[in-house]
Amino acid sequence: MSKHSDSVHPVSGDQKLPRHVAIIMDGNGRWAKKRMMPRVAGHRAGVEVVRRLVELCRSKGIEVLTLFAFSSENWRRPEQEVSLLMELFVSALKREASKLHKNGVRLKVIGDCTALNSKLQHQIEDAERLTAGNNKLTLVIAANYGGRWDITEAARQLARQVEAGGLKADQIDEARLAGCLSLADCPEPDLFIRTGGEQRISNFLLWQLAYTELYITDTLWPDFNESAFDSALSSFANRQRRFGRTGEQVAQSDTTQAEKGA
Ligand code: FPP
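Above: inputs. Below: predicted complex with farnesyl diphosphate.
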């Protein structure tokens, strides 16, 4: 069930951490171009950043990391780039699945997987099955994902329930719809990061980002290192999340919570 994640945040030092970080990893192509390299070299460098970031999130106690790896619109890219990206996913999954498992990471893939090639679909199923019981970090990879697709699928599920007579149209509310979305079993993202400087959500988690803190950096994804991540986390720690309340109400409830914790 989807919920605002203003409950218990993990803490690093004195700093409040997000429970769920969602990232658009942009800028691989520009990174490669600057180095006179093919675009795929940027994607390869991007995979290394993903590996390091997963480890960082796990060690900091962040619960969920969601990465936009391939959007439903990315099929429009040159055929060669699309197939190289698919190969990259296959080889990364093959190489990393057992390592993720050893480190207690649960892998979850969201998006319309039926459009992915069958080798990749099997690899995804195997890795999800292998890591299903892990609880140190949930790594969500959005592949052939679109926020509008996600909401449409949820609407379709609810419509089927109404058709079958198990649900009345009037019983449909936000919680019920959220419960049918791809990330229904995760807290909503607290922090959204986009690298590469574009000021867009690009059909990522449209429903789930409603109250998420947005952080956009010009850093290109292959250059997104620990210090860049720390800057995003410290920006998050300094935000006041109000969820529609006034600043005074939030300050009062923070004080009450701190007193309870003392
Ligand atoms: C956007 O950069 C990046 C992508 C469309 C692909 C992202 C994929 C990875 C980093 C690999 C992830 C791998 C796993 C296993 C999760 P861009 O190509 O649009 O860059 P540009 O805006 O500079 O052209």
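The first strand starts at residue 11 and ends at 12.
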